[in-house]
Amino acid sequence: MKEYDIKDANLAEGGRRRIEWAEREMPVLRLIRERFAKEQPLKGLRISACLHVTTETANLMKTLQAGGADVVLTASNPLSTQDDVAASLVTHDEIPVFAIKGEDNVTYYRHINAALDHKPHLTMDDGADLVGTLHKERRELLGEVIGGTEETTTGVIRLRAMAADGALNFPVIAVNDAMTKHFFDNRYGTGQSTIDGVIRATNILLAGKTFVVAGYGWCGRGLATRARGMGANVIVTEVDPLAALEAVMDGFRVMPMNEAAPIGDIFVTVTGDLNVIDRHHFALMKDGAIVANSGHFNVEINIPALEEMAKEKRLVRPFVEQFILEDGRRIHLLGEGRLINLASAEGHPASVMDMSFANQALSAEYMVKNAEKLQKKVYSVPEEIDREIARIKLESMGVKIDTLTPEQVAYLNSWEAGT
């Protein structure tokens, strides 16, 4: 057994039971695992994965291992690790894990470097911290890397910027861009799990509250819809006129954050950008306002500014920090501004992660088969993989759909037929 760093190996049995529970809701990944075990498409390959260490991720790691890969896992966020899951992977599956919930920033990057010590052939990232560290600090390892995958919107943005600058040294598949990922994981997963995280942290009633969603991408769409479903009055803030127009057409109030700040009760950022909630917004917020983030990095909220503005800070509940400003107003920050759906809750339901991690597994297989033909840039998940995952998911749900007749196929491919 290689080196690892987890909180407590005694948590392993509880972790195994939860991993098995999640597996029941992941039929697509289970079918892929069965095929991988027979065909061994990843045999002899070293994979370093930087992902949220959850029950769903554990099932992905076991799938990659079944396919013959030598896998190491590290956390992609200091607060997202489920310590019992990490213990189970180490104890029961002999997969080295470097992750402890609540680890500090120094430990976080030490763990990323430990995963890179594995000398990966493939990287699997959630936010591009692994790839970023590899390119900036561990360049001696780049020669062995044939490719990678990336799970998040934030990570894809960073990787495309690297590719545009000519800095990316190997091809990466943007798993986040798969329709079976962002249509479902981002919308239904983030939507539900963020609400879950906010409620678990605060135990507040959403009905009747003014709920401000910053960003109307797929995550924002899902979050706004579910907040409205819980009875909240939802406001959306945006910088993209098309997204803002869609939010208006979907029945939400749309306004700048400056206008939303004085009237919002709960604020959640899901943009992937910097300082979306800033100093001047805190200055306008009402007493008791709750601020959270469900984007990948906590930079969406200007936490240093909030700390400078506060005369006192205290932890009033697990994952709830109360900042008391000079005028006595109290602003509550959830989960240190990190992903609240993973900080105080369990992240996305297994059923939706089934599709996301099926994309990860099949994209890894595709990368192995096609790496020599791919350039050093970011690629979308091949459409045939996307559609196959959707087909298997429907089948697992007992849902059947129509198929085109030969006549219909001919009609769709013809230009001669008119009215």
Describe this structure in words.
This protein is an alpha/beta fold and 419 residues long. It folds into two domains: 9-181 and 348-396, Rossmann fold (3-Layer(aba) Sandwich); 188-343, Rossmann fold (3-Layer(aba) Sandwich). 45% of the residues lie in helices and 16% in strands. The strands form two sheets. It has an eight-stranded mixed beta sheet. The chain has a seven-stranded parallel beta sheet with strand order 3-2-1-4-5-6-15, with helices on both faces. Helix 1 crosses helix 4 (83-93), helix 2 packs parallel to helix 3 and helix 8 (179-202) packs across helix 9.
How is the topology of this model organized?
Elements: H1 12-23, H2 27-39, E1 46-51, H3 55-66, E2 70-75, H4 83-93, E3 97-98, H5 105-116, E4 122-125, H6 129-137, E5 147-150, H7 153-164, E6 172-174, H8 179-202, E7 210-214, H9 218-229, E8 233-237, H10 241-249, E9 253-254, H11 257-260, E10 266-269, H12 279-282, E11 289-293, H13 303-309, E12 310-317, E13 320-325, E14 330-334, H14 340-343, H15 350-370, E15 378-380, H16 383-396, H17 406-412
Parallel strand pairs: 1-2, 1-4, 2-3, 4-5, 5-6, 6-15, 7-8, 7-10, 8-9, 10-11, 11-14
Antiparallel strand pairs: 12-13, 13-14
